[in-house]
């Protein structure tokens, strides 16, 4: 385990790492209590991988535990019972496509604790249907024969097909993960095979940790959604499952209706909307495409209303004042627009990281491992910060609906944060380019110091940015202007509540970035990305 892993409350492991750990646990039980690895696996699965409890029971009630676990020989009436026996026919009604059950040359397998023999084809179908393909993992796999409690372990599986062996290994792993589901979680990214293991004493459900997998995917360990600081899991779930789609549909509908209102007129006969500009150059009267009624495009009265008693057409009448047909509520799309812009920026940061990884793979000697790590951490920090900005738009949607001053202040902070990231990205690109062509150790030393310092400053800034939102933006204390005797005066620019002893606004008249960095707590040491 690396030093960084010791500082984090979690580590990332592979499927092979977990299988190796399972094998070691099985070997220890097998060696101490002189049982086969196959029996040790069955016992550990039955007692939910609690080695201490298993040790106590094997020491105190060995025979009873082995009997309960199906690891003692089962008495059978006919020790030569096999697939040709009529008593076994009932087990094959589910597997009609097993055609070689009655052949004498078919290999037939039983458990070490009973003599109920079945073909390998039958075993495969039985295991797949009842154990390997089902969601719930049972403690013990028993013999297919009715009322036979003999346990099926690895020694039986080894006599079957390679696919059965692989499926059994996955089945054992599932059993181990079910026991450890509060401490070990699989990365929810599609196609990712990594697992996140929380260190001893860390409760993944209660800690509310935001995790970065080695595949680059950021997610919340509580709800398995993508990292959504500074909003809660419920807010994130509501936004993704309901509000985002609703806001998008409302925005599209609003824009559509506004176009109709600006570009159409209403037929006086059937009240259908007609696109402006359909009038003819030869005649000011046009027929409606829906009802065929003719009307004047200039005053919107019918053609008949223009005729005089002599049958000729008179001047236009006073234009009709039409009531609006579309009572459309214009949707405020600023929050949605910011979300989409931040999401695009985050995807761009992810592309930058992928481009860097591809370049390092093709040019492994272009940077030292230490320098690659520094640049990778900077690029991953950019992704995390872009993600924070994206979800701060959701915070704005849920928490500042009736608090205009806080909403304005939040947007002010978002703008500063965006500028900070743009400056950091420029620094990251320039310093990395310098490192690529640096031949002098002094230049590389300067690169490491400069980039590490810049990364630390950005981490501090965003830590305080998140904390400010999670605390409810308490810096903005809205007071009435009428209360002149109160302890605050409100800045007209940012609405920050200042003490009467202050001659200038403390929030927007000082260098805000510097102020926030000074007040920040250390985030880089807590940042949740994985090398």
From TrEMBL:
GO terms for biological process: protein ubiquitination; ubiquitin-dependent protein catabolic process. Pathway: Protein modification; protein ubiquitination. Its cofactor is Zn(2+). CDD domains: BRcat_RBR_ANKIB1 (cd20346). Residues 84-320 form the RING-type domain. GO terms for cellular component: cytoplasm; ubiquitin ligase complex. Keywords: Metal-binding, Repeat, Transferase, Ubl conjugation pathway, Zinc, Zinc-finger. InterPro entries: E3_UB_ligase_RBR, IBR_dom, TRIAD_supradom, Znf_RanBP2, Znf_RING/FYVE/PHD. It catalyses: [E2 ubiquitin-conjugating enzyme]-S-ubiquitinyl-L-cysteine + [acceptor protein]-L-lysine = [E2 ubiquitin-conjugating enzyme]-L-cysteine + [acceptor protein]-N(6)-ubiquitinyl-L-lysine. It comes from Brassica napus. One of its GO terms (molecular function) is ubiquitin protein ligase activity. The lineage of its organism: Eukaryota, Viridiplantae, Streptophyta, Embryophyta, Tracheophyta. Its EC number is 2.3.2.31. It comes from the Eukaryota. Belongs to the RBR family. Ariadne subfamily. This is RBR-type E3 ubiquitin transferase. Pfam families: IBR. The keyword Cell membrane does not apply. The gene is BnaA06g22860D. PROSITE patterns: TRIAD (PS51873), ZF_RANBP2_1 (PS01358).
């Amino acid at each position: 385990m690396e030093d960084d892993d010791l500082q984090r409350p979690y580590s990332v492991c592979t499927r092979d790492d977990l299988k190796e750990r399972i094998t070691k646990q099985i070997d220890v039980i097998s060696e101490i209590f002189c049982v086969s690895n196959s029996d040790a696996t069955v016992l550990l699965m039955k007692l939910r991988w609690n080695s201490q409890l298993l040790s106590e029971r094997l020491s105190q009630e060995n025979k009873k535990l082995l009997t309960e676990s199906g690891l003692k020989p089962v008495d059978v009436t006919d020790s030569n019972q096999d697939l040709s026996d009529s008593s076994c026919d009932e087990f094959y009604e589910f597997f009609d496509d097993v055609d070689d059950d009655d052949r004498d040359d078919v290999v037939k397998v039983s458990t070490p604790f009973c003599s109920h023999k079945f073909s390998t084809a039958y075993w495969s179908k039985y295991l797949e249907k009842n154990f390997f393909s089902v969601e719930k993992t049972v403690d013990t796999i028993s013999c297919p024969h009715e009322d036979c409690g003999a346990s099926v372990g690895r020694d039986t599986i080894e006599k079957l097909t390679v696919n059965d062996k692989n499926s059994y290994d996955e089945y054992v792993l599932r059993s181990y993960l079910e026991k450890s589901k509060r401490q070990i979680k699989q990365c929810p990214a599609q196609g990712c095979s990594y697992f996140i293991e929380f260190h001893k004493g860390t409760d993944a459900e209660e800690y509310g940790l935001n995790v970065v997998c080695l595949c680059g995917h950021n997610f919340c360990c509580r709800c398995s959604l993508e990292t959504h600081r500074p909003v809660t899991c419920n807010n994130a779930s509501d936004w993704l499952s309901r509000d985002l789609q609703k806001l998008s549909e409302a925005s599209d509908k609003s824009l559509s209706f506004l176009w109709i209102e600006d570009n159409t007129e209403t037929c006086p006969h059937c009240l259908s909307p007609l696109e402006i500009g359909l009038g003819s150059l030869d005649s000011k009267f046009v027929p409606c495409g829906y009802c065929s009624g003719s009307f004047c495009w200039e005053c919107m009265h019918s053609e008949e209303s223009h005729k005089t008693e002599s049958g000729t057409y008179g001047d236009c009448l006073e234009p009709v004042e039409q009531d609006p047909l579309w009572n459309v509520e214009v949707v405020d799309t600023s929050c949605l627009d910011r979300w989409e812009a931040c999401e695009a920026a985050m995807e761009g940061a992810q592309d930058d990281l992928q481009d860097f990884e591809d370049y390092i793979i093709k040019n492994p000697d272009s940077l030292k491992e230490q320098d690659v790590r520094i640049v990778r951490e900077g690029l991953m920090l950019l992704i995390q910060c872009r993600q924070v900005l994206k979800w701060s738009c959701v915070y704005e949607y849920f928490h500042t609906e009736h608090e205009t001053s806080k909403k304005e202040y939040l947007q002010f902070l978002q703008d500063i944060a965006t500028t900070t990231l743009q400056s950091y990205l420029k620094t990251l690109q320039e310093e990395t380019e310098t490192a690529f062509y640096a031949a002098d150790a002094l230049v590389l030393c300067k690169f490491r110091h400069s980039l590490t310092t810049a990364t630390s400053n950005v981490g501090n800034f965003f830590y305080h940015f998140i904390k400010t939102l999670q605390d409810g933006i308490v810096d903005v204390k809205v007071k009435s202007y009428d209360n002149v005797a109160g302890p605050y005066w409100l800045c007209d620019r940012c609405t920050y509540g200042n003490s009467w002893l202050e001659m200038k606004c403390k929030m927007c008249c000082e260098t805000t970035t510097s102020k926030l960095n000074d007040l920040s707590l250390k985030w880089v040491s807590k940042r949740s990305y994985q090398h």
